[in-house]
Amino acid sequence: MVIFPIMIILSFMMYIYYKVMIIRDRDPLMQEIKNAKARIALGVFIGVFGVNQYLYYQTQLALFITLVFLFFGVVQGYGGIKRLSHYKGEFQKRAQTNQ
């Protein structure tokens, strides 16, 4: 199961990338879009990390911890997707008014 460690590393790297890009951007709307993408990457990281831990240990305690991690991962991912769709709509509205 080498796919889970690869997904963990990639999602964590994407999270760090978007957080750094927030600092570099001056536009508040673009900062919000990048923050939403960072939340999605964090949700994937948390969820996949929990599943990976269960596959490694396979105990009842690991199952409980995995369920908690999956819950928080889904909450982060869902919140990020909702924010991303909202702010992309706002970005498109702003682009249309500037033309």
Brief descriptors of the model:
mainly alpha; 92% helix; 99 residues; YtpI-like protein; 3 helices; transmembrane; elongated; 0% strand
Topology:
Elements (H helix, E strand, L loop, with lengths): L2 H22 L3 H30 L2 H39 L1
Helix pairs in contact: 1-2, 2-3
Any overview of this molecule?
- The chain starts with a helix and ends with a helix.
- α1 (3-24) runs antiparallel to α2 and α2 (28-57) packs antiparallel against α3 (60-98).
- The chain has one domain.
- The model has no long low-confidence stretch (mean pLDDT 96).
- The protein has helices spanning 3-24, 28-57, 60-98.
- The longest helix is centred in the C-terminal third of the chain and has 39 residues, at 60-98.
- It contains 3 helices and no strands.
- By secondary structure, it is mainly alpha-helical.
CA distance, first residue to last residue: 50 Å
Number of strands: 0
Low-pLDDT runs: none
Largest beta-sheet characterization: none
Order of helices and strands: HHH
**Into which percent range does the helicity of residues fall?**
over 70%
Question: Averaged pLDDT, please?
Answer: 96
Strand content: under 5%
SS field, number of helical segments: 3
Computed CA radius of gyration, to the nearest angstrom: 16 Å
Domain count, please report it.
1
- Overall 3D geometry? elongated
The helix/strand class is mainly alpha
